[in-house]
Write a structure and sequence with these properties.
2 domains, alpha/beta, aminoacyl-trna synthetase, globular, about 425 residues, Four Helix Bundle (Hemerythrin (Met), subunit A), 3-stranded antiparallel β-sheet, Rossmann fold, 13 helices
């Protein structure tokens, strides 16, 4: 699901267990995932694991001490609630420790740093931000979109992004558009879209105009590919994961393959493109695509249109003025602007707001078992969301209907006041 505003006519990280390290600086011509780079990530993971283990031990001792205090009956419920929260946090940390152990095993087997889905390099900076990552940002973004689309109800993270986008549009007097990202038709589950739309309506987030579906825009994406091909920007790539393993970035091996070939992905050449833009929340951003991501995929090996191209074509419509979305999508923006400029589309303004994360830093998502929202508690859900956006509804609005809460919030909303620092989710 994506939302945008229609014209009338580098986020900061939360305190991270693996923040105390020096970013790795590759030497000239150093191969990707060299022995030194592998050791760099092994050290990060081991330190992270040690800190998690110490935190688990501290919690166990704390709970034992508190349990021995025999609180008054009036305090018992509070203590049990605190214990429940701590146990859930510790359970997530134990799962994270297991994932860290699996990642260290992959380093030992020299099977680390490459996307499990498409085989390309994940990249040093993404791995330093997410050391246990097993997918490149493209595949991860696509999977998260599928999770939101295919598995029913919205969760608190989805509602945070949707509400911020909605309030930004309404406070400016713009229309708020809704798009369903449903390109992977093989995995569409009947009823999932309806569940999402019902949840948005229950929370008062009424969109303008018809729902836009990417599955209905294939001709537009194919036309964009044809234009890029005519401009000599595309090539067919059949590079395997093994072939790319020792390289710091995609070297253009297949750039001469301009004729259609079977079992190939379609990549776009970025050459020495440099993209600069000012994010409405995060501030100035600049990226050299050739150094950061290299030639990237615009049509997957299985024939499906890649997320970057579809999103660039959709958001590049002349009627779109602003795109407000989660900070986890900031890394995609330079590539999408590159494609818009190559296709001579209108580049909207972007704003990337804080991501909702668990206390351990894991993003709230279906993959992290984020609980779905109860539409029957829409007013409470929305009030929590507004507080996470820095808006505190007055006492007189306690228990108010979603429409009344949104009307108040629209009058006081200021996008420039939003923080890019991740928000801790406490249920």
């Amino acid at each position: 699901m994506a939302s945008t505003a229609r014209k009338k006519s580098t986020p900061k990280a939360v305190d991270s267990p693996f923040k105390n390290f020096t970013p790795y600086k590759p030497k000239k011509n150093e191969p990707y995932m060299s022995e030194a780079q592998m050791e760099h990530f092994r050290e990060i993971l081991q330190k992270w694991r040690q800190e998690l283990m110490e935190e688990v031990d501290r919690t166990v001792h704390h709970m034992r001490d508190e349990a021995a205090n025999f609180p008054d009956p009036a305090d018992r419920a509070t203590q049990e609630e605190e214990f429940s929260i701590e146990l859930r946090t510790r359970d997530r940390e134990r799962k994270l420790i297991k994932k860290i152990d699996q990642t260290i095993d992959r380093i030992d087997q020299e099977d680390f740093g490459y996307c499990d889905t498409c085989g390309i390099e994940i990249g040093l900076r993404r791995l330093e931000a997410r050391p246990t990552a097993t997918q490149c940002i493209d595949c991860k973004s696509l999977d998260e979109i599928k999770e939101k689309q295919l598995h029913g109800p919205l969760h608190a993270g989805s509602l945070l992004a949707a509400t911020a986008s909605y309030l930004d549009a309404r406070s400016r007097g713009d229309s708020w558009l809704l798009r369903i990202d449903d390109l992977d038709h093989f995995r569409i589950i009947e009823g999932a879209e309806s569940a999402i739309l019902r949840s948005l309506e229950a929370h008062g987030l009424q969109w303008d105009g018809p729902v836009l579906r990417q599955s209905e825009r294939i001709p537009a994406y194919e036309a964009a590919l044809a234009q890029l091909g005519e401009d000599d920007r595309l090539f067919y790539c059949n590079c395997s994961r093994k072939a790319l393993r020792e390289l710091p970035i995609y070297p253009g091996t297949c750039r001469s393959q301009r004729r259609p070939r079977e079992d190939c992905a379609l990549r776009v050449r970025v050459d020495d493109a440099e993209i600069a833009f000012t994010d409405l929340i995060v501030g100035p951003q600049q990226e050299r695509l050739g150094e950061a991501v290299g030639d990237f995929i615009v049509r997957r090996r299985d024939g499906l249109i890649a997320y970057q191209l579809a999103t660039a074509v959709d958001d590049g419509e002349a009627s779109i003025s602003r795109v407000i979305r989660g900070g986890d999508l900031l890394d995609n923006t330079a590539r999408q602007i590159f494609l818009m400029e190559a296709l001579q589309l209108t580049v909207p303004s972007y704003g990337h707001l804080a991501t909702l994360v668990y206390p351990d830093g894991a993003k709230l998502s279906k993959q992290s078992h984020a609980p779905g929202l109860d539409d029957a508690s829409a007013s409470a859900n929305l009030a929590d969301t507004l507080r996470r956006l820095g808006l505190n509804p007055p006492a007189g609005l306690s228990g108010a209907e979603p429409a009344e809460l949104l009307s108040w919030a629209t009058g006081v909303f200021d996008l420039s006041a939003l923080s890019a620092v991740d928000v801790i989710y406490r249920h």
